[in-house]
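Predict the holo structure. Ligand: shikimate-3-phosphate.
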Amino acid sequence: MEGNHCDMNFKKCRRICGEISIPGDKSISHRSVMFGALAEGMTEVSHFLKSADCLSTISCFRKMGIEIEETDGILKIHGKGLHGLTAPKDILDTGNSGTTTRLIAGILAGQPFTSHLTGDASICRRPMERIITPLTKMGADISSDRGNSCTPLTIHGRPLKEIHYLSPVASAQVKSCVLLAGLYADGPVSVTEPALSRNHTELMLASFGASVTSEGSTATILPNPSLTGQRVEVPGDISSAAFFIAAALLVPGSELLLRHVGINPTRDGFLRVVEAMGGSVEKLNVSDQAGEPTADLLVRSSTLHGTVIKGALIPTLIDEIPILAVLAACAEGKTIIRDAAELKVKESNRLDIMVRSLAAMGADITGTEDGMAIQGGKPLHGAVIDSHLDHRIAMAFAIAALTADSVTTVERAECVDISYPGFYDDLRRISEP
Ligand code: S3P
């Protein structure tokens, strides 16, 4: 996200009410394009998230010869099978998207051609040794052009070997990268994580016909499956829903219905923490699509109290920590977040930025090595907050502003386009001024 910037002002609102259909899940949308491209025949995706990150994934696969079109709101991917990608003539630009960069690297490692990957300033700072290490152990030829283990990356496709990889981080991007490389390996490929991360890759690849099994925090894939195009209905993104859930919880007298939100247990830590804090979020119309559970969520404003967020819960709410920190600042008592050092290497250093920016609004918050401690209940006041071009920081402070007693300015606010292009319109629609 570089170029023209826009600042936006937010202030207290009287009530949050109404209904929102939350845009499609970002993780699932990315995977639908990738797996659709590697499958034989057509994959049709409804409720696909047309955000900047997912458009980066589409653009990369188009450059490798995959036809992707949209008709009547359905994304159609003309898959060419596991061995149907063609060498890109151009560098593959993954924009701001860690998921595109890391998952595509796993696919590219086993192709019979060379490719180059790059992205924006943020992506070029994010650690890639976490994928370079396992891919290299599998026999891949992947290197960082600047020798700093970041993008730009050059990948010369090679035959890959089986592996059982013990990942030092609980990361679905690392796990998915290795499993996708496993499609092109000479034997089974397993990944064991310190705690289970989101399992959309395992679920969706299995529905396309791959042989994927999971046991605890280990996932295993067998090579060379024949993948078949599928119909995918993308649920609403719980990571996007979290901002509006927080708004309705915090603004007194609010009631909000969020339709068709994904509540996969590897992603629903936010709901579990909100419940532990005393928040009222009722699940209605629970159903299931290809192993991905969904529900309508009815949220009522609530008095919240502090909690402890740590351990195996962290990967299930990793993207929701910025908005959880806002909730904690408005709750009674102390909240501790630990085991969350991963937040330092997201689109921005989210630990550092949340601590500094919430403090600027008057919160009692201290950064720790792997998290933060928040003494809730101090009244928040408006401030000027730099989003650092991080979509989740921008959205977290647009919501914090709803409880503050003067205007909050979010700088470079356009970065919400990364995951939720209509965020400000939806917020306006449900806010009573
Ligand atoms: C994602 C995994 C998470 C998450 C990111 C999307 C995915 O990253 O933060 O927004 O789609 O696999 P890590 O797996 O690296 O924690």
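The longest strand covers residues 280-289. The domain at 8-24+235-432 is CATH 3.65.10.10 (UDP-n-acetylglucosamine1-carboxyvinyl-transferase; Chain).
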